[in-house]
TrEMBL record, chain A:
Belongs to the phenylalanyl-tRNA synthetase beta subunit family. Type 1 subfamily. PANTHER family: PHENYLALANINE--TRNA LIGASE BETA SUBUNIT, PHENYLALANYL-TRNA SYNTHETASE BETA CHAIN AND LEUCINE-RICH REPEAT-CONTAINING PROTEIN 47. GO terms for biological process: phenylalanyl-tRNA aminoacylation. This is Phenylalanine--tRNA ligase beta subunit. SMART domains: B3_4, B5, FDX-ACB. CDD domains: PheRS_beta_core, tRNA_bind_bactPheRS. Tetramer of two alpha and two beta subunits. Its EC number is 6.1.1.20. The gene is pheT. The keyword Metal-binding applies. It comes from Nitratireductor aestuarii. It is found in: Cytoplasm.
Automatic annotation (TrEMBL), chain B:
One of its GO terms (molecular function) is tRNA binding. It catalyses: tRNA(Phe) + L-phenylalanine + ATP = L-phenylalanyl-tRNA(Phe) + AMP + diphosphate + H(+). PROSITE patterns: AA_TRNA_LIGASE_II (PS50862). Residues 126-349 form the Aminoacyl-transfer RNA synthetases class-II family profile domain. The gene is pheS. Pfam families: Phe_tRNA-synt_N, tRNA-synt_2d. This is Phenylalanine--tRNA ligase alpha subunit. The keyword Cytoplasm applies. Transmembrane segments: none annotated. It comes from the Bacteria.
Length: 801, 361
């Protein structure tokens, strides 16, 4: 919403400075987005051409002698056809920035003749598109003074950003009312006197869609002369960024901004028969005033005559019945439209107009007919003619809302004490009508405030006008104890997971929650994809079923930039469905090239090996341990989901069903489908699958019993089938004596022809911790036998000779 | 010079000349061994007369002691030399590069770090962290938050919708974290003090808007919370977060469907240095958040009586306040996973934001 200072002062009697007005607007909720104080026009002065002679070397140029009021006439070369001795115009001296041509002038030589400035056209000053000649001012224009000041072009332009709840401030009058309420002057009387019409409006109006049109006013003015509108009106429209068209159209635009009352004018000669307000027929077309053709549907409301659609109701008029310089009889329309329908029509047709902007927010229903009167007055004043009576159809008296307002609500909600008198005075200045006295009053809401429904709305009115700045910050009731833990277990695990991965050298990324359908598909397994109906791009169209595709793609992007060894992780949501419980909390990561925790790349002490399934396993276990899971409570099974290498992937479970994590190198077909290259490994840990820790009655750790006897180790090597998991062998060794054996570590795995087909050798180091006595050789022999027997029993392996 | 003097000189010369332990040992054996030259002299004592023995005993024993001492001294010298030689042999080039600690190489994304900073501050103020799903229903995202059907404010959200499900219901990606307000009110009795960090989505894309971004929602509901309290909480938060001792903030009336009264908050700053914003100084106002008293209709949708309970809520962009504090120029880079960006703007994993240790190092 834009307006000029002088325009505002048409409605507001104020001594306040521009700065005060701007500051106040922002602080009462009409945020000032920009102020153009027109200082760019200040340097242009009124100058008189004393003498004009043909340029010696150019037919179309003249050499002028110009009096700029300084006593020393200047020589100026000018190409304007209307430049002549005696003309008074606008002069720009060297050094002046001329906005219309975006040039800062200097002393120039034009075809050999020096020019000390420029006589300007309106276009050069961005006053209009006029460029057929230089500006011509009346003879009494004072030479040597500021042109902008004399012509009142220095009127500052203020632009405010309106929130959608304030349709009343889509008018200069409404802005003035708010400022007056805030104490910045007095609101001038905006009452409108009716115009007595001669005879009935000959065009009849039928409302066939009353749900879309709660009222329609129409009046004919005969015998108008529709030329350009007066200068002051054009200047105001130009100042706020509108293009003057002709007086009738300019009047409608002026009313739209001055009073927030959009109007439409039809050239009566082009309207065939009577007007019907109805829903458009499916596929009905109209060529609108913007020169575009729109195809309408039954959801759009139109104004039609015998010929067809003449106007898209409340949004944009039709080209056919528009007013031009030949218009002599004009029909002025002032109507009410259903806001939601206007919003929908505007949105569907892609039309943004000042009328739509106001109708979809809600215009003052009580001003529809006064607005028509005021517009009629302007038409009569500016274009002459004779008005008929108004034809008003469908209007019903507006039901005025009444809010029961305990004045103490102001203090309750804002914390500031505002006296009852002041609260009610503020509301009254804004047009509310408090009725009765005492602590609770009934407040009648003005018809221009559709946003006000309840007492909280009234509190806001009082607060913003009284001044938000006056509310002193007040500490909340302070704590009476030390804060306890504020994060949930899941939140704590999320934080620990990302830091556990970062300390393993991974970089935490945040990638899009939506990915391409092609990337999502392989990771969705048999579940349906969660697709957006209106994605902004095809590669951001499907909710990710896993964090891996995004991370794999990110690793490849980095590789393509020359960073081949990257370790990326992310702890975020993956979406298995569209319900809240389908949103999984996942810690995931990928490593590429040689990005291992201990370092990467080539090294003088030995090159780092490519990443593999075991690094991914370390990562997954690191997350699980950070989440408080004891690694010895976990089962690790070979194989995982289809996107992994079937022989180089694993699944970590707790119990038979609960899958906590998967890890591995990726399936070559996946890498090919994603067009990425390896070496690459990755993992996913389902943080939300990790059981809640058991509640503990005490924080005391279990008693620690330290054995006084030396711990010893014994090595064993077994030859087993190649497909026997090392995990089974380790478990068998551990189970041989749960009391004495405290650890089993695999320190060598070897396959070779010497062992036989499909055999491997697994060497373990068993840590034995005697508890109550030093073990004898016989004790060790017995223990060793138990270990060997148990391993043989569980794995079919034999002790290697 | 008698023969004992001569022997001593000869032995001491030999000890001094011994270049290694084996040679020295040979000297020792030749002198002090069973048949060593000094041992032979000592044996002579037995065949001497008591008077002779009285004289010669100390002389010969003196010789033995001096030779023994000389041997020990020389042995120590040789050992020192051997160690010195070994150390020299073992010398390496310590300027050779070593791997950087994984904990120094890893990075925490600025969004995670800032969320941890926020949690530290609001935890101190007695708030809990709440969360909710990214995929929401129209009810939680709009209707319950007092967005009337078809209202222009709804359109301003540029909502991403899912394709309709079998029942024709069209779910959406939450456009703000505010649905969690309702979800919290439904499950928790006041007093409520929560902050809600999370992902939000709008169909918008340029240098300061991405289709996915992060918001921080705050909600306080009890029987007294008012605008004055809200001003205090938000001012204290901004001071703590930006780590400045004073800060000018400007609260100005605004509009949000789910708050009434509604306010927008600007923060005074200095933007005269390119690529840097300083708070607590300067002449610019920068919008940083929106807030207001929870709308009575929202309280009702949460199952609370607006005449008994009241409270305030606010929302701010986490990515935005991260950019303001740490100076990233382009929001889109947050989600690109470029390791150069992560390395530069990310945080070391052991830099945990706390109030006792400072939010940032």
């Amino acid at each position: 919403m834009k307006f000029t200072l002088s325009w505002l002062k048409d409605h507001l009697d104020t001594e306040a400075s521009l700065d005060e007005i701007v500051e106040t607007l922002t602080m009462i909720g009409l945020e000032v987005e920009s102020v153009d104080d027109k200082s760019v026009l200040k340097p242009f002065t009124i100058a008189k051409v004393l003498n004009a002679q043909k340029h010696p070397d150019a037919d179309k140029l003249q050499v002028l002698t110009v009096d700029i009021g300084s006593g020393t006439p200047l020589q100026v070369v000018c190409g304007a056809p209307n430049a002549r001795a005696g003309l008074i115009g606008a002069f720009a001296a060297p050094g002046t920035y001329v906005p219309g041509i975006d040039v800062t002038l200097s002393v120039g030589k034009i075809r050999g003749v020096e020019s000390f400035g420029m006589m300007c056209s309106e276009r050069e000053l961005q006053l209009s598109d006029e460029h057929n000649g230089i500006i011509e001012l009346p003879e009494d224009a004072p030479v040597g003074t500021s042109y902008a000041e004399w012509a009142k072009l220095d009127d500052p332009v203020i632009e405010i950003g309106l929130t959608p709840n304030r349709p009343d401030c889509t008018s200069v009058y409404g802005v003035a009312r708010d400022l007056a309420a805030a104490g910045l002057g007095t609101l001038k009387d905006g009452a409108v006197a009716p115009i007595a019409g001669q005879g009935a409006c000959p065009v009849e109006v039928t409302i066939e869609a009353p749900e879309l049109c709660p009222g329609f006013g129409l009046r004919l003015v005969r015998g108008v002369k529709n030329g350009p509108s007066p200068k002051w009106l054009q200047q105001r429209l130009i100042a706020i960024g509108l293009r003057p068209i002709n007086a009738l159209v300019d009047i409608t635009n002026y009313m739209t901004f001055d009073r927030g009352r959009p109007l439409h004018v039809f050239d009566a000669a082009k309207v065939a028969g009577n007007l019907v307000i109805r829903r458009a027929k499916e596929g009905e077309k109209i060529l609108a005033l913007d020169g575009r053709e729109y195809t309408l549907s039954g959801e759009n409301c139109v104004i039609a005559d015998d010929r067809g659609v003449e106007s898209i109701a409340g949004v944009m008029g039709g080209e056919h019945s528009g007013c031009d310089e030949n218009t002599t009889d004009v029909l002025i329309e002032s109507a009410l439209w259903a806001p939601l329908n206007i919003a929908r029509t505007g949105r569907e047709l892609g039309i943004i107009t000042d009328a739509r902007y106001r109708f979809e927010r809600g215009v003052d229903p009580e001003f529809a007919l006064p607005g028509l009167e005021l517009a009629t007055k302007m038409v009569l004043d500016l274009c002459g003619g004779e008005a008929t009576e108004i034809r008003a159809v469908g209007f019903k008296p507006t039901e005025q809302k009444v809010v029961t307002f305990p004045v103490s609500e102001v203090k309750r909600l804002t914390g500031i004490e505002v006296s009852t008198e002041e609260s009610l005075a503020i509301l009254t200045r804004l047009g509310f009508k408090p009725q009765g006295q005492g602590d609770v009053v009934d407040v009648k809401v003005p018809t221009w405030r559709p946003d006000v429904d309840g007492k909280a709305d009234l509190v806001e009115e009082v607060m913003r006008i009284h001044g938000v700045n006056k509310i002193e910050p007040q500490p909340m009731i302070s704590k009476d104890s030390v804060s306890s833990r504020i994060l949930t277990t899941a939140q704590i695990r999320t934080r620990l997971a990302r830091r556990a991965l970062a300390v393993r050298g991974m970089m935490e990324a945040v990638t899009w929650s939506f990915i391409s359908e092609a990337q999502a598909r392989p990771f969705a397994e048999n579940r349906p994809l969660i697709k957006l109906a209106n994605p902004i791009a095809a590669d951001l169209s499907t909710m990710r079923p896993s964090l891996l595709p995004g991370l794999i793609a990110a690793a490849q992007r980095n590789a393509d930039r020359g960073f081949r060894d990257v370790a990326l992780c992310e702890v975020a949501a993956a979406y298995e469905g569209d319900r809240p419980q389908d949103q999984r909390r996942v810690a995931s990561g990928v490593r590429r090239g040689t990005a291992r925790p201990g370092g990467q790349g080539r090294n003088w002490a030995g090159n780092v090996a490519s990443v593999d399934v075991f690094v991914a396993k370390e990562d997954a276990l690191a997350v699980l341990e950070a989440c408080g899971v004891a690694a010895d409570k976990l089962q690790i099974e070979a194989g995982g989901p289809s996107w992994y290498h079937p022989g180089r992937s694993g699944t970590i479970k707790m119990g038979p069903k609960n899958i906590l994590a998967t890890f591995g190198e990726f399936h070559p077909r996946l890498l090919e489908a994603m067009d990425v290259s390896g070496p690459l490994c990755g993992f996913e840990v389902f943080i939300d699958a990790v059981p809640e820790p058991k509640a503990r009655a005490t924080r005391t750790k279990p008693r620690l019993d330290l054995s006084p006897f030396q711990a010893v180790t014994r090595d064993f090597a077994f030859v087993v089938s190649r497909d026997v998991p090392a995990g089974t062998l380790v478990r068998a060794a551990l189970a041989a004596d749960k009391k004495l054996i405290t650890g089993v570590n695999v320190f060598d795995v070897f396959e070779g022809q010497s062992l036989g087909e499909d055999k491997k050798s697994v060497a373990i180091e068993v840590t034995v911790q005697p508890v109550d006595k030093t073990l004898t050789d016989e004790d060790f022999e017995a223990l060793s036998k138990r270990i060997v027997d148990n391993v043989t029993k569980q794995t079919g392996g034999v002790l290697r000779a | 010079m008698n023969d004992l003097d001569q022997l001593e000189k000869q032995l001491l010369d030999e000890i001094a000349a011994a270049g290694e332990e084996a040679a020295l040992e040979a000297v020792r054996v030749a002198a002090l061994g069973k048949k060593g030259s000094v041992s032979e002299k000592l044996k002579l004592l037995g065949s001497m007369s008591p008077e002779e023995r009285q004289t010669m005993g100390p002389v010969i024993n003196g010789l033995k002691t001096r030779v023994t001492d000389a041997l020990a001294a020389r042995r120590a010298e040789l050992r020192d030399a051997a160690i010195a030689a070994r150390l020299e042999r073992e010398r390496v080039d310590v300027t050779l590069p070593v791997a950087r600690s994984a904990a120094e190489r890893g990075r925490i994304h600025p969004i995670s770090q800032v969320i941890d900073e926020i949690a530290a501050i609001f935890g101190d103020l007695g708030f809990e962290i709440a969360e909710g799903p990214d995929i929401e229903t129209d009810y939680y995202n709009f209707t319950a938050l007092n967005f009337p059907e078809g209202h222009p404010a709804r359109e301003m959200h540029d909502t991403f919708f899912l394709e309709p499900d079998a029942n024709g219901e069209r779910k959406l990606l939450r456009t703000h974290t505010s649905p969690v307000q309702i979800r919290t009110m439904e499950t928790k009795k006041p007093p409520i003090r929560i902050v809600i960090p999370g992902k939000t989505y709008r169909a918008d894309s340029d240098a300061t808007h991405t289709p996915m971004f992060h918001q921080l929602e705050g909600l306080v509901i009890d029987k007294t919370a008012n605008v004055a309290n809200m001003k205090w909480v938000l001012t204290e938060f901004c001071k703590a977060y930006f780590e400045v001792s004073s800060l000018n903030m400007r609260f100005r009336p605004s509009f949000f469907p789910f708050t009434e009264p509604s306010l927008e908050v600007d923060i005074q700053c200095d933007r005269s240095r390119p690529g840097e914003v300083r708070f607590g100084e300067g002449n610019d106002w920068m919008e940083i958040l929106g807030c207001g008293m929870v709308h009575p209709n929202v309280l009702r949708h949460g199952g609370l009586d607006p005449d008994e309970y009241q409270g305030f809520a606010w929302g701010m962009g986490i990515d935005r306040i991260a950019m303001l504090k740490y100076g990233m120029p382009d929001l889109r880079a947050f989600f690109d996973a470029d390791v150069r960006w992560l390395d530069h703007y990310g945080f070391r994993p052991l830099d945990l934001p706390t109030l006792f240790g400072g939010l940032s190092s």
